[in-house]
Amino acid sequence: MRLFEVADDVLGTCGAPGDAMLQHDKLHPKIGPTLTIAGIVIIQALICAIVGKLLERDVVPPVFRSGNVSGGDEHNRGLIDKYKDRVRYYRALAGSRSIFSVT
């Protein structure tokens, strides 16, 4: 049984079979995965669509900001503090060095 036969919705990435596009005479397996790029585009498009639907319903979702903009790290730290008990990764960070620290 294949996924599209049992799922209500399936988003295909249209990737090359074996998830690689480039080949070289001196290397048997192909290289250059295609699914990573396609998957990222699909996930980001879904996120944008979902955020748009939430905003249409007057629900403002928690969204991380870039750490490259003023106040981004502080904003993100606040979200992590707020949701750390709901996200296993954040619970694991409790008591460890901040993910915002640069070594």
Structure description:
The chain has helices at residues 3-6, 35-56, 72-83, 88-93; strands at residues 22-24, 27-31. The chain contains 4 helices and 2 strands, in the order αββααα. The protein is mainly alpha-helical. It starts with a helix and ends in a 10-residue tail after the last helix. The protein is 43% helix and 8% strand.
Short description:
The protein has 103 residues and is mainly α. The chain has helices spanning 3-6, 35-56, 72-83, 88-93; strands spanning 22-24, 27-31. Strand 1 (22-24) and strand 2 form a beta hairpin.
List keywords for this structure.
single chain; 103 residues; mainly alpha; 4 helices; 2 strands; extended
Series of secondary-structure elements, N-terminal to C-terminal: HEEHHH
- Label the overall shape: extended
Provide the β-strand percentage band. 5-15%
Runs in which pLDDT lies below 50 for 5 or more consecutive residues are: none
Indicate the multimeric state: single chain
Task: Supply the number of helical segments.
Answer: 4
On the 0 to 100 scale, the average pLDDT is: 86
Classify the helix fraction into a percent range. 40-55%
* SS-derived structural category: mainly alpha
Sheet with most strands: strand arrangement: 1-2
Number of strands: 2
> Major β-sheet, in short?
2 strands, antiparallel
Output the radius of gyration. Answer: 20 Å
How far apart are the first and last residues' alpha carbons, in Å?
49 Å
Architecture blueprint of SSEs:
Elements: H1 3-6, E1 22-24, E2 27-31, H2 35-56, H3 72-83, H4 88-93
Antiparallel strand pairs: 1-2
